[in-house]
Design a protein that fits this description.
By secondary structure, the protein is α/β, with parallel strands linked by helices. Helices cover about 50% and strands about 20% of the residues. Helix 5 crosses helix 12.
Length: about 300
């Protein structure tokens, strides 16, 4: 049994069609058909239900698919184990919540050093991305804390301040003194599983506000556009909302301390082999994080020095 036979089998299982799998893999259709039949003879069982609409895995096929996925992960780990750290090639599949602010800086820094590594991105809310990491569908993901999964490594990436955001036009209706005055308005939020939403729910529960009106949207642009139009308020990282504030489109309000600070971490399976490609990516995360700390400290130092009194 050859590894390529398993790869072809998994492609047919994914697409449910010999012709589609052949096109995807760059093979002629008779070759794929012959390889599948040869594999079935070696296994000693048919692997598919064949019908007019294509091919569907049977019980034995689903069993082989499980082993095939394990084999492909092992082959990937073998490749990672023998990478040349000075000339990396390969791919990384990374998940991220849409609100990760510093991610472009990490990607840019990593790409400048390792141009032959292909990075594919998958967006979603934290709970969805964590599930995909656990199922080996992602190498790792940027998600919001807390992450209460013991089988995941967590590498600190960014620290964010969450603020309540409303339309600038809201100020014309009355003088707003604090974020609490806006809690009666509809909330414009991401879907369930978003940590901003969970922070809001904790806050509302402590304020004894039940059954708030919530409108769900899938993208940051839609959420902010809806807030700017005055249809509701949202909770978001300050750094994401400041551009809209500078343009005079929204107002930002600090929220109480227990809900204000949020850390974004990079998570990966603890039992997954850490190849050089991903190891260098994690190193880049730490370098960017330390660089931001240094910049904050430098600004603070110069500010304090400017205001030092003469003695």
């Amino acid at each position: 049994m050859e590894v390529e036979d398993i790869r072809i089998f998994m492609a047919v299982a994914e697409y449910g069609s010999v012709s589609l799998a052949a096109d995807k893999l760059g093979y002629v259709q008779p070759n794929v058909t012959a390889r599948i039949r040869s594999l079935e003879r070696k296994i000693g069982h048919p692997l598919f239900h064949r019908h007019r609409r294509g091919m569907t895995l049977n019980v034995e096929g689903r069993k082989l698919l499980t082993y095939g996925e394990q084999m492909m992960r092992l082959m990937d780990e073998i490749q990672k184990a023998f990478q040349d750290e000075h000339n990396l090639v390969g791919s990384l599949c990374i998940g991220l919540v849409e609100t990760v602010v510093g991610f472009p800086e990490i990607i840019s820094s990593y790409h400048n050093k390792h141009k032959n590594v292909d990075i594919s991105l998958v967006s979603g809310v934290s709970t969805q991305l964590i599930e995909k990491v656990l199922k080996f569908q992602l190498d790792g993901a940027f998600v919001a804390e807390p992450v209460n999964v013991s089988t995941l490594d967590q590498i600190p990436a960014f620290d964010e301040e969450i603020v309540l955001v409303c339309s600038a036009n809201e100020k014309g209706k009355k003088q707003i003194q604090s974020a609490k005055e806006l809690l009666h308005l509809p909330f414009i939020l991401f879907n369930e599983g978003c940590q901003y939403r969970e922070r809001l729910q904790q806050w509302l529960q402590d304020e004894q506000i039940v059954s708030p009106k919530i409108m769900e949207f899938a993208t940051l642009e839609t959420i902010m556009g809806t807030v700017v139009s005055g249809l509701g308020v949202t909770l978001i990282a300050r750094s994401l909302a400041e551009r809209y504030e500078r343009e005079g489109l929204v107002q930002l309000f600090s929220i109480p301390e227990p809900y204000r600070n949020l850390r974004i971490v990079y998570v990966r399976r603890s039992d997954s082999y850490l190849g050089v490609t991903e190891g260098e990516f994690i190193k880049t995360i730490s370098e960017v994080r330390e660089g931001k700390k240094t910049e904050v400290n430098r600004r603070f130092f110069h500010t304090e020095l400017f205001y030092l009194p003469y003695v």
